[in-house]
Amino acid sequence: MNASMPSGATAGPDGPRPAGEAALYQRLREHLAYLRLPDAAAALPTVLHDARSQQLSALATVERLLAVEVDATEARRLASRTHFACLPAGYTLADFDYTAQPGVDEALIRDLASLRFLDEAANILFIGPPGVGKTMLAIGLARAAIEAGHRVYFTTAEDLAARCTKAAREGRWSHMLRFYAGPRLLVIDEFGYRRLDADANAALFQVISQRYLKGSVIITSHAGIATWADRFADPMMAAAVLDRLLHRGIVAAIEGPSYRMRAHQARAEQLRRAVRP
After folding, report:
1. What is the pTM of this model?
2. CA torsion, points 238, 221, 184, 98, in degrees to nearest 10?
3. Pairing of strands 123-127, 249-253
4. In this structure, is residue 156 part of a structural domain?
5. How many CB atoms lie within 10 A of CB 120?
6. Measured distance CA(159)–CA(216) in Å, rounded
7. CB of 247 within 8 A of CB of 216?
8. pLDDT tens-digit profile of 100-111?
9. What is d(CA 166, CA 270) in angstroms, rounded to the nearest whole number?
10. How distant, in Å, are the alpha carbons of 14, 37, 177 from that of 24?
């Protein structure tokens, strides 16, 4: 024991603590551990030190301590939602260059970024040729929803169809349907890039039907709505899918130069300048 430390005292972040205070400190740590508040427990010495040095009230000290746990919990939940969503890239809406793609209605995207469409279980269809930014915008909206606390899942139409078809063969169809019906927002990318078979189309129809008026869907497609009957190879099913998507749907048609091609041309120009004598 330190010779200068009073009998029964323990060392703390601000020097020796009286025995009674030390026991109280240990009980507080035990309470935090029992309540499964590990980040608050870890921050306790620092928070108590700040409370003394800044002369915080008891109420302010408790608020600061619990804020540490709240922030850490929200960070873990955000990380969990992000992992679950399976977004293929780290795009945000702030990354989108509207000057590079004048075919995008910036006012519409900013309105969608409010996420009011989720409250209405409305759907968004991004339609346009390859490279115009459909997927980037879909990912940006998905990330905004994740950061707002919503569960989101991203998939391609082909992968959704393949997983549903496989689940049906293995007797897990009802489980798979519940999985796709669960998230507040489901993003289905690249619809129409390849014609799907009848079973796959039926699975896609059932997923859309299960989510109808319950959860939002974002679909990206290079195929215009008028061609969906051909993509489904079943005009009645195509009409049924569109009826559900468009009832509370927003169609964002994008026409313009390829976003990716513009970036490629910019990189090529940089290389030319670098090697130019």
Report:
1. 0.82
2. -150
3. parallel
4. yes
5. 10
6. 19
7. no
8. 888 899 999 999
9. 47
10. 15, 17, 53
128 falls within a domain = yes
- Strands 216-221 and 123-127, sheet pairing: parallel
- Interior angle at CA 132, CA 126 and CA 133, nearest 5: 65
Task: Determine if residue 148 is left, alpha or beta; phi over 0 gives left, psi from -120 to 50 gives alpha, anything else beta.
Answer: alpha
Q: Answer whether residue 184 shows pLDDT above 90.
A: yes
DSSP-derived letter for residue 14 is T
Rounded Cα distance, 95 and 256, in Å: 18
Match 């260059």 to its residue by tokens.
Answer: 97
Strand, helix or coil at 103? Answer: coil
My answer on whether 91 and 192 are in the same domain is yes
Q: What is the mean pLDDT of residues 260-265?
A: 57
Backbone angles phi, psi at 193, to 5 degrees: -70, -30
What are phi and psi for residue 138, nearest 5 degrees? Answer: -65, -45
Helix (H, G, I), strand (E, B) or coil at 186: strand
- What's the number of domains the chain is made of? 2
Residues contacting 204, CB < 8 A, separation 6+: 157, 160, 161, 164, 188, 196, 241
117 and 50 part of one domain: no
| Model confidence band, residue 7 (pLDDT cutoffs 50, 70, 90) | very low
251, β-bridge pairs? 125
3-state secondary structure of 35: coil
C-alpha neighbours within 13 Å on the C-beta side of residue 68: 18
- Alpha carbons 46 and 71: distance in angstroms, whole number: 16
Segments forming the whole domain that contains residue 108: 86-262
| 92 and 51 share one domain | no
